[in-house]
Amino acid sequence: MPAAVDPGDPDQRIVEAAAQLPGRGGVTGWAGLRWMGGSWFDGVDRHGTLAPVPLAVGSGHRRRVHPGLVVSQEVLDLTTVVRHEGVRVTVPLWSVAYEMRKATSDTAAVVAFEMAAYDDLVSIEELTRFTDSSLWLRWGVERVRRVLPVLEENSWSPMEPVMRLAWTLEEVRPRPLANWPVFDLNGRFVGTPDLIDPVAGVYGMYDGGLHLAGEVRHRDVTKEAAYRRLGLEGAVMMAGDLADHSPFLARLDQAYARAGRRRADDRLWMAGPPRWWVPTSTVAQRRALSDDERSRYLTYRHAA
After folding, report:
1. Element (H, E) at 291
2. Please, which domain of life does this record's source organism belong to (predicted)?
3. Which domains does the chain have, with CATH numbers?
4. Using an 8 Å Cβ cutoff, are 31 and 11 in contact?
5. Are 183 and 189 within 8 A, CB to CB?
6. Per-residue pLDDT tens over the stretch 288-302
7. Nearest to 56, CA basis, from 2, 101, 12
8. Is the pTM of this model over 0.90?
9. C or N terminus of the chain, fewer CB within 10 Å?
10. How many CB atoms lie within 10 A of CB 224?
């Protein structure tokens, strides 16, 4: 007997949704991004509920109700839809803009963009141009414009932008760098904290349920000890801080206070990477890598 199809499998849901498309249009939003290679888009919301598959069908088509689908009848430019691996999808810029415009909050919109940028599907520059040239006065475009200045292209997981936005919420701390590599004064690579203010010497790490025990926790503790030896002070955001950021911000303020009391000769980290380091913090830098370079320089992101 053939194996049973998992009704929650996101790829199966996308294929079945695409079969409901009319003569034009395409799968969009999270589903379009996943089909184009977005590894962080699984169609499950933060409550564990299956999100509907969004379909962009353009204007002039009757809205048909299907379970598990949501239909957008916004006017589509002919260049908006492409066929990829047998499925019609909207181009990544349209898909991510759709996801950002329909997001439940500005933070969710930022997360959507940054997880698409993780796989180099979109860049900030491209989204800026697309917003001005193609979104016009569409519903929700004001949110896209509002969050453009705070977007980042080097987040490695969905909780990192959440932590960064909390870090800068009160506008009293400098915007930290995302996944900036840390080196000792001899140029030896030490680690890559989720966020870091390299001037103050303060870093931030997100510690979710995955980090509570076993090899991941051992690796985290080892990293924390290495950062302390360099004179860096850290603050951890935990899953319990997501609803109320104040405990994390209190820990962050304490880290800044400790860092401020350190002497100059206690600062044993380099201000930036050594010259031999190959930068991969922007979409443009990663797109310029060869396949071999990507396998060497980007694989570590999955284990971070």
Report:
1. helix 291-297
2. Bacteria
3. 10-150 (no CATH), 159-266 (3.40.960)
4. no
5. yes
6. 999 999 999 998 786
7. 101
8. yes
9. N
10. 17
